[in-house]
Amino acid sequence: MDKSKIVVLILSTSDKRYSSFKKAIEESWARSLREKGVKCFYYQGGAQKNEIKESTIFLTANDDLKHTSVKLLDAFKLVLDSYPETQLVYRTNLSSFIEAQNFLKFISRHDLNSDTYCGIKNKTNTTKENFYLNEVMTFVFTVLQFFGKRFYFASGSGFFIGVNNIIKIIDDPKKLKYVDDVMIGYNLIDHPIKLIPKRFDIKERNKHKISLNEYNCLINKGLLFHYRFKTKNRSNDSKNLEQFKNPNFRIEFCSFKS
Asked: Based on C-alpha coordinates, what's the Rg of the chain?
C-alpha cells in the first residue's frame, strides 16, 4: 500500500498531565513514521470547532471517556474529508510505542487494505458494555458472560481499520455510548478478526523481559511493532517510551541473554 494512504490516529486529550507522553511520541515514533510518508495525528475533544492544526485534530466532542466513540467518528470524518485518498487507519493511544519499519512491513506482508479490521482480539457482551464505567456491574457481567449478545472487538491499544469499514460505521453508527474500540467491534460484528498483531506489554519490575532469542523471533518473524507502556509509574513510562527510539535500548529493556 502507498504510505501516503495510511493514517495513524493517536487518542489524546487536552489534559496537561499527558503532555509528557505526547512529547515522547513526537520525538520518537511519530517522527519516524512521518519521515516515511505516513500521516500521524493526535486527536482530542473540548475544542471550539472540528479542525486539523498541524499534528493535532481538535474536536468539539467532550474530552472524557464517555465520548471516545463520538471523538473517534468525528476524527474519522475530518481525516476522510481532508485526505480522501486515505485507505487504512491505525488507531492507538498515548501509551504506545510503534516501531516504524516493522509497522510498515506488517501492513505489506499481510496486504492490509480498505476492508481490513484487525488487532488484539477481546471478547465482551452487550449487557456488560451497557454498564460501562460502573465497576461493580461491569465485573458482574464479565463473570456472567452468558447475559447479553457476545461479540469480539480489536483492542483500542492499537487496531487497523480500512476505509470501507470506517464509512460503513459513519453511515450507520450503533452503540455510541460504548467505549470506542468496543463500539467499532459491535458495528463490525459480522467482520471476524482473523489477523492478530503481536504486542509487547511493558510490566512492573521487569516482568516483561524475555530471552534475547525469543525477542529476536518476535521482531524478525512476528514483525512485532507495538509496545504498550502502562506501569504504575507513568513518569518513567513516558521517559522510557521516548528512549525506545534507540534499538539498542529496546533490546536491553525487553530481553535478557539466555
From this structure: 18
